[in-house]
Amino acid sequence: MDLAFTQEDEAFRAEARSWLHAHVPTSPLPSLETEEGFAAHRAWEAELAADRWSVVNWPTAYGGRDAGIVRWLVFEEEYYAAGAPGRVNQNGISLLAPTLFDHGTQEQRDRVLPSMATGRTVWAQAWSEPEAGSDLASLRAKGVRTEGGWMLSGQKTWSSRAAFADRAFGLFRTDPDTPKPHQGLTYLMFDLRAPGVTVRPIRRLDGKPAFAELFLDEVFVPDEDVIGEPGRGWRIAMSTAGNERGLMLRSPGRFLAAADRLHTLWQSLGSPGATRSRVADALIGARAYQLFTYAAASRFLEGETLGPESSLNKVFWSEYDIALTETALDLLGEEGELADTDWSERYVFSLAGPIYAGTNEIQRDIIAERLLGLPKGRR
Amino acid sequence: MRFLLDAEQREFAASLDAMLTAADTPSVVRDWSRGDHARGRALWRRIAEAGVFALAVPEAYEGLGQHPVELALAFVELGRHAVPGPLVETVTAATLLTEPGPAKRLLPALAAGETMATVARDHGYALDGEAAGIHLSLTAEGLRLAPGHGPVRPSLDPARRLTPLDPGGELLATGPPLAPALLLARLTTAAQALGVGLALLDRTVTHVKRRTQFGVPIGSFQTVRHQLADARIALEFARPLLLGAALTMTAEDVAAAKVTACEAAYRTARTALQLHGAIGYTAEYDLSLWLTKARALRTAWGSPDECRDTVLSGGRRW
Ligand SMILES: Cc1cc2nc3c(=O)[nH]c(=O)nc-3n(C[C@H](O)[C@H](O)[C@H](O)COP(=O)(O)OP(=O)(O)OC[C@H]3O[C@@H](n4cnc5c(N)ncnc54)[C@H](O)[C@@H]3O)c2cc1C
Question: What is the ipTM score, two decimals?
């Protein structure tokens, strides 16, 4: 058991650090959740990709560095420590790409991944529907078989960044007559600008059009955009949601850097005693999350699947993130009320953490049933 | 970077667990709480035979040299089984005794489990002074071998008996390695607390599956399930902090592990009590052995606030 990185890993860290030092924009980009900011972040993805820093853990053939999970963690630590911009293609990179690596065809990987790596194609996740939130399997948007593909109809909602994104991936009911709701679902990719698609941006809490609802009216999707077998979409979607995503969705680097900034802020305000223990807990939480992730990554490298453990992860980081940003706003006092500061933007985003990626109530149910072995419940 | 226990380490923990499970520790604890140390001493010798105390004693004095990771693993098991006695104090004493004369005289017996040691800071309490054969007091002049102990005062945890030490005695060292000794005390206390929390969670999960109300197991009620899920989350995030601290042994890491493990155990204790209902509130039921220990360990060898202060002192560390 050890925490020491190899010389090669340290060299990789140094290389990442010096690249970031030379390239990270000196003044922050406009908010990712606005049209102007979106374009700026797309350009940043292209810059990252030009030197193969956008998807370090992918194979080199698709624009990565074949770096493996440990170096991905190292890269993320450096990335956030450098104060680099948010990642506009997070959904594609952390959800769709692993799905394609595990279940896609060679042709799909060759077609989809390179333009994802450069930010030329930005992906939105189209899972949720107005009547299918936590109970996602009850979804009703449908796909009907047609010559050479499928016709999609129905409504999707809360699709992050779909207001400005290019393409989307999601689950559709292609067989309405199955005995169980998880059956008869197909996982596929579609174009957000295809005929029949209407995208209506939705303003989030701070008024920014950060997500959107999608109305689909006979949208044609060719067979080549079906991921895995038709009718088996649920299993495919869940398998990628469980394992690597537990590690990759939120990296420790993000929280280590935030805790560090909080600590510096606290010291710059004269280390006020009233917030002492909350600042300490922010530092401790970041370290705990880092080490928890190192342990998970080590098990992953030994070939273990992580499954329901990612639920521990999800609840922890989402609650931690809110506590950390609340502490920063409280420390700032009157200044903390101002919108459009780094901390307030972070705060608004953190509030959604316990809701998206499976609500924390759902995660606690998974922990209770699958990790503690408690009986299925009265809910 | 391979932050994963190896097979030998896992086996060491598992074999301690098996040995302690067979030892019926709850009845040993109850004897100990009444001041009857016979079975506790017997158990102590078996723990020593497994090598636990030797993990803190230098090889020159019949120990194995210091192995914080293995010590942490062992103390998780000792906490899980609520083993009584000055466990933390004994490994702390082993670190404090570096002067060749006293070390040669006192350490081999500690490594072999023939003697227990206890330690008091300044004018504080020493744990289980009446059971210990070696009483160390840390004073302004250094480390002294106290001639004896004062009257026993009960702790909130009936298995812990607190004793002041008598003043004076032989001066063993003028500059003992205080900082490393305190680090080891905090680390092993954190480990013991984690074990206590894990035992509380385990027993509560078993209870809520068995106990029925309104015609169903109470473990099927969502508020019950979610409280236990939260306890599991808290404990699972304390574990890597503990093992990470055992690897680095920096003051910040150890303090972070101590506050987190102790808070997780304490929160789990509150949940365990609540979910057991009235039976959890009785001294007769074994759950109480862990409930009271979770409270006591929270302030032993560094309160949550002291530990948080340590984390905050200094610049960027992680
Ligand atoms: C910022 C943000 C971004 C998002 N991005 C995307 C995206 O890109 N793509 C996408 O598809 N979706 C996205 N979502 C949607 C998200 O996945 C859903 O909001 C989430 O699954 C919850 O569904 P819901 O909002 O319908 O809430 P509901 O399911 O109606 O839940 C409301 C409340 O009831 C609770 N609840 C429901 N069922 C249970 C139960 N069985 N036990 C206990 N409590 C229960 C929930 O935990 C929650 O507290 C996003 C959401 C947000 C806030």
Answer: 0.96
